[in-house]
Write a structure and sequence with these properties.
It is built from no helices and eleven strands. The chain is mostly beta strands and 117 residues long. The chain is globular, with a radius of gyration of 13 Å.
Length: 117
């Protein structure tokens, strides 16, 4: 059974920081592209950062320069360090694993991030 479990969300003031974690089990983490997405109320889910097995990264314009994605293959965990948070960053943040071996995507349950002004 594949499981992605996010943690680290919460309420923070504008300008603050949060670190999200996503622990993965049930697939070979070393063969997974990992990404973070978010969905604000009334909006579509959007990709904000992605990291490949070789640790190459890519960011959406909205997160570039403020957010950093990283992975710890020994812990089967991907992180999203978010600095300089803004009220418009308020959303449910989801972790996604694209398992290269079978071509399937897996999602976590999401963690709420709320940024107050």
């Amino acid at each position: 059974q594949v499981q992605l479990v996010e943690s680290g969300g919460g309420l923070v003031q504008a300008g603050g920081s949060l670190r999200l974690s996503c622990s993965v089990s049930g697939i070979n983490f070393d063969f997974s592209d990992m990404s973070w997405h978010r969905q604000a109320p009334g909006k579509q889910r959007e990709l904000i950062a992605r990291i490949e097995p070789n640790s190459n990264t890519a960011y959406a314009d909205s997160s570039k320069g403020r957010f950093t994605i990283s992975r710890d293959d020994a812990k089967n965990t991907v992180y999203l360090q978010m600095n300089g948070l803004k009220p418009e960053d308020t959303a449910v943040y989801y972790c996604n694993a694209f398992y290269i071996t079978n071509g399937r995507h897996y999602w976590g349950q999401g963690t709420q991030v709320t940024v107050s002004s």
